What we know:
The structure holds 2 protein chains of 2 kinds. Chain A is mainly alpha-helical. Helices cover 85% and strands 0% of the residues of chain A. Chain A has helices at 10-50, 52-72. Mean pLDDT of chain A is 85; it is low at 1-6. Chain B is of the alpha/beta class. Chain B has helices spanning 50-59, 78-88, 116-119, 133-142, 150-161, 183-199, 246-257, 275-285, 300-309, 330-338, 405-410, 423-433, 460-470; strands spanning 14-20, 36-40, 64-68, 72-74, 92-101, 104-109, 128-132, 164-175, 204-208, 214-217, 226-232, 263-270, 289-294, 315-319, 323-325, 343-351, 357-359, 362-365, 368-371, 391-392, 400-404, 437-448. In chain B, the strands form 4 sheets. In chain B, strands 11, 12, 13, 14, 15, 16, 17, 20, 21 and 22 form a 10-stranded mixed β-sheet that branches. In chain B, strands 1, 2, 3, 4, 5, 6, 7 and 8 form an 8-stranded mixed β-sheet that branches. A two-stranded antiparallel ribbon of chain B has the order 9-10. Chain B is elongated and about 80 Å long. At the A-B interface, helix 1 of A face strand 13, helix 9, helix 12 and helix 13 of B.
Amino acid sequence: MSKIVNSPQEHDIERDLRELALVDKIIGLEAEVARLSIEAGIKDIRVIRNSRPWRVGRVVLAPVAFFQRIFSR
Amino acid sequence: MSEAIPLEASDRNIRIGILYLPGVTKHALPSNQEHVSFIKCSELSPKGFFKQFSKEVENSGLDWVCVVSENVTFTKQVGREFARFIHVHPYSEMVYSDSSVKGFRKHQLLRTDYCQERHRSQNFIGPVVFYSRQLLTKVLQKNSFNDDFFDYALSLESAISARDVGHIPKILYAQDEPAMLSEAETHVVQGIVQSHLTKHGGGVVEGVSYSGIAKSKRAVNGNPLISIVIPTRGVFDFPEKSSQSYVLNAVSSIVDETTYENFEIVIVFDSNPEKEIIDSLNKLLGHKFKSVVWNHPFNFSQKMNYGVLHARGEYLLLLNDDVEVINGTWLENMLALAQLPNAGMVGAMLYYEDDTIQHAGHAYYQGSPTHIGLGLPRGSQGPNSSFLVERKVSGVTAACAVMPRHVFMEAGGFSALLPGNFNDVDLCLKVGSLGYDIYWTPNAELYHYESKTRDAHVHYYELDVIEHRWGLKLDDSRFWRGHPTSAE
Lengths: 73, 488
């Protein structure tokens, strides 16, 4: 147990410390969930871009994309 | 109004009027792009052009007005990049971009995201600013501006009214090397910034340098109590000088230098602090001293949280024990920024013992948290004079940081999962994720005697926590562009 000088409300401090730790854990978990969902999205995009239908589609549409780029200048 | 330039896809076009201010001799239009048409507005008469400017904006039927205050050469992509940006950031009513310097291919003026506090010290957004016509109409109805430094006064005022100020982090034009001001011009700029501060929140401009940097500061509201929380071992740290300790040096410098009077100092000792140190602190501080003892195993974060919970102040100053105050107004300068609406944290300029910079804000660069300006000599101005102006940053070191108490509590304080390292990085990222702004000021200077060669042992679990929580946020170029320790 911590020895508190000049402060009579030891139990309040202990409670507040636990509360701080809890808030910290919640924010930390929220951050982790956000990071994981973004990473999952990036992974999904990578999988789609490596798939055969995507690659075939790109080859088929390459001339269209080329002319689109030329005419949009 | 003249020279409407035809475009493809005219139905969906954003119509941008280019308004060259008097003095600009080169009136080249940016090339039109898909979705964007540039229209050259009438030339403004050299003197008393405010009314004509307002008329141009009212009559134009434009969506946006691009105000150009210097000779610039636009790149080909300016229209496309602007259209893309507006599509992604529909709430932006004022937009600026990066630029290069003519004749110096490698000299790029990479700007940071918008910061009102930086803007009142430095016209850092450049000579080309896009305003939505709605915003300009609103601003011009309420204000009138003089000819001198019209662009600066207009942008300062507009940024207050804009829903959002956007920054396109791409080079969209080349400009001349920024010019030095004359003596008379520095007084004009001082007047503009002073009236802006008086109108919006208060503050004072102490002077303007020839490079256009206004030494301006916010004023403190009221006289709130600041609790300075210092963790320390509470022993004599110098074996060769048995009467000296870091914490005594730090507290002495606070007492000797600080001009702000309403503070208390909460010192969190490890178990068994030296009695002589406590006696000396009592002598130095009297009723401002509060001592707390932490009897648990070492955990910097928990120790700090423990100290904060014993503090009574509306504002907290988190401070290491191995610091020494340099300038007397450090506390009020930090407090004034911490009192800004939405401010979450404020950091200071820290120097090592050998007068090199230790900290001019945190930068989260390529996955690693580091200090801006680390190792540069004291007096360096930094890229775009960044070390001379108050500005937003991604984070600041907790070796010296002011926070509103409610923000500390809302963020859950320091994380006990990070007992020795990265606890300040984590706290800043939590504060940022809650939507608060973090500021850094050069107007609070301290020495930090943390050894430059300190081998702080980083535990794998600390790396793990910081990486798992904030992995993607450790690459943040919003408030610092380029390498954190680049001098220019």
